[in-house]
Amino acid sequence: MLRLGTRTSALAMVQARGVAARLREAANVPVEVVGISTAGDRHQGHLGELGGKGAFMTEIDRALLNGRVDIAVHCLKDVPGDVPRPDELVFAAYAERDDAADVLLFPAAGEIRRMADLAPGARVGTSAVRRRAQLGRIRPDLRIEYLRGNVDSRLERLDSGEDLDAVVIARAGLTRLGIDRPGEALDILPAVGSGVLAIDCRRADSDVVDLVRLLDHRETRLCVSAERAMLRDLRGHCNSPIAGHARIERDGRLSLRGAVFTPDGSRFVHAQEWSPPEKGADLGARVAGDLLRKGAGDLIESIPH
């Protein structure tokens, strides 16, 4: 029996059950999903007060290290780039990436279905500094409201019509939860690791590592290698509006776009480079170096932790 650890939110449990089903199918092994309450889920304030998105991982890492669970599933976009992972743990598999797009959703009872139809000063909910910055570039007149919570609670607040005219939610989360409602895909650069589930396990458990690797998606791993290398070299913190997305182009090359913004989006730097697919880490380093030469370091340092 493999014990698979995950956060206790509805989305995290759905994701974990999906991974468990794939493991059962690939290796005919029984898998038990174990919900683990994390500080990030319990805390209702700003994540920066807990040190950032790492607050979603500490308890799960501890459960892996002490043997309470054998594997764990994380949304890769929630894995910090400025905090080293425990040496004893390894991401043995990256599941095939789902749609990385961010979607703007509107109250179900209303008639608005496009950003262009929002009135000046309309209130848009999101907790992501990356989204806030890019929305600021597209529609600087919008009022961006800090919004956390699970997908259901965010949609309930939106549909109440009390204080929000739209919210931004990852399309991958909506799809995994089976939520189908009208919205507008935003033309903004996603977070590093968007749409990717990372499967974590103890490095020393070679049999478990080999089993989990059955779920590894090569193209996703190549893309993640580039994105995470860029994020690491930029040394951004939890309040840094950093975006990055890699993909395999039609000509077979790996491309990586990266950008760093000020919180309001008034200033930004952007870079894009290409490489052979197996050179993702080098590509990420090159894009980070280009961004830093253009002033990304100054933008990041200007933002309080």
What features would you describe in this structure?
With 305 residues, this protein is α/β, with parallel strands linked by helices. Strand 6, helix 4 and strand 7 (143-145) form a beta-alpha-beta unit. It is 33% helix and 22% strand. Helix 8 (218-234) packs parallel to helix 9. It folds into 3 domains: 1-95 and 194-216, 3-Layer(aba) Sandwich (D-Maltodextrin-Binding Protein, domain 2); 102-185, D-Maltodextrin-Binding Protein, domain 2; 217-296, Porphobilinogen deaminase, C-terminal domain (Double Stranded RNA Binding Domain), CATH 3.30.160. It has a 5-stranded mixed β-sheet with strand order 2-1-3-10-4, sandwiched between helices. The chain has a 5-stranded mixed β-sheet with strand order 7-6-8-5-9, sandwiched between helices. It contains 10 helices and 13 strands. It is an enzyme of class 2 (transferase). InterPro entries: HemC (IPR000860), Porphobilin_deaminase_cofac_BS (IPR022419), Porphobilin_deaminase_N (IPR022417), Porphobilinogen_deaminase_C (IPR022418), Porphobilinogen_deaminase_C_sf (IPR036803). Keywords: Porphyrin biosynthesis, Transferase. Residues 2-208 form the Porphobilinogen deaminase N-terminal domain.
